[in-house]
Design goal:
By secondary structure, the chain is of the alpha+beta class. The protein has a single domain, classed as TATA-Binding Protein. Helix content is about 20%, strand content about 35%. It is built from three helices and six strands; from the N terminus they run βαβαβββαβ. The protein has helices at about 15-20, 35-45, 90; strands at about 10, 30, 55-60, 60-70, 75-85, 105-110. A six-stranded antiparallel beta sheet has the order 1-2-6-5-4-3. Strand 4 (about 60-70) and strand 5 (about 75-85) form a beta hairpin. The longest helix has 12 residues, at about 35-45. It is globular and about 40 Å long. About 20% of the residues are buried.
Length: about 120
């Protein structure tokens, strides 16, 4: 979360942009002035010491990845990183975001996943 607290990121209300109740899941949502690839690189570097290996997957314009904690592989968390411009129906009505931010990020918090 330290990475997402940097000046290049701004937390936004998940419920407003992704549907009522989204924040009840523990998800946290952000926008960034950085390009998707830059966000992915920063997030990857930040979590690398704590997680196993794996690759980000891109589909429908979003990079996403689940991570398992190296010290406790039954616990996982994830990120989805997209471009604000890919979601005009979501962001266009918000001039404080549309045209000012490049990427949007959804963080899915650490949960225990029984295999």
């Amino acid at each position: 979360m330290q990475t997402l607290g940097a000046k290049e990121f701004k937390e936004i209300d998940c419920d407003t942009f992704y549907g009522e109740g989204m924040s009840n899941t523990g998800a946290r949502c952000f926008v960034s002035v950085l390009k998707r690839e830059e966000v992915v690189a920063r997030l990857s570097a930040a979590v690398k010491p704590f997680v196993g290996s794996g690759a980000w997957v891109e589909d429908y314009g979003q990079y996403h990845r689940s991570f398992r904690l190296s010290a406790a592989p039954e616990y996982a968390f994830g990120f989805g990183v997209s471009r604000v411009a890919y979601s005009p129906d979501t962001f266009r009505a918000y001039p404080e975001i549309w045209g000012r931010y490049e990427s949007n990020i959804v963080y899915s918090p650490i949960v225990r996943e029984d295999r």
